[in-house]
Amino acid sequence: MADNPDRPAGQAAPAQERAAQERAVREHAVQEHAMTRTEPGGEHRAPRTRPSFAARAAGARRRAVGALATAISVATTAVVAILAVHIVFVAFEANTANDIVHWFGDRATDLCWQFRDVFQPANHKADIAVNYGLAALVYLVVGRIIVGIVRRWA
Fold first, then answer.
1. Nearest partner of 85 among 108, 111, 60, judged by Cα
2. DSSP characters for the chain?
3. 125-147: per-residue pLDDT in tens?
């Protein structure tokens, strides 16, 4: 490629000039892309910075406390459900020789501990409904209070 005699000295040829401009545009676009992200709508925004250690630790703590509160809630709900199923079985005179009825009866008796004889009505069905129902209510209320306290830790 010979230099054009009509062009002043030190000036690049048009093809070289265009190539240099295209390189500069590409480099600028690469730098801009590294600094911004394109959203689905075509909008650019600054990249997210990595959260600090304290922010990550706080997030992990919130997740752990949430998991603990959920576990407590599930456990108290299971206890209340066992007591409620036993009350239903007694109220409808389920077959006590059945293994499922026997299992629920044993678990409910274990879970009812101090509430078994709070009230002593003459009717056996009423006795079970009132005392085991009271135990279920206490488990439910205490469980919800504990869940509320645990969630406040987060």
1. 108
2. -PPPTTSPTTPPPHHHHHHHHHHHHHHHHHHHHHH-EE-TTS-EEPPPPPPPHHHHHHHHHHHHHHHHHHHHHHHHHHHHHHHHHHHHHHHTT--TTSHHHHHHHHHHHHHHGGGTTSS--SSHHHHHHHHHHHHHHHHHHHHHHHHHHHHHH-
3. 999 999 999 999 999 999 999 99
Residues 21, 139: Cα–Cα separation, whole Å = 75
Listed as ranges, residues in the chain with pLDDT below 50 are: 1
Q: What is the total residue count of the chain? A: 154
Residue 102: name the closest of 122, 116, 82 by CA: 82
Taking residue 141's Cβ as centre, other Cβ atoms within 10 Å add up to 11
Cα angle 106, 93, 99 (rounded to 5 degrees) comes to 40
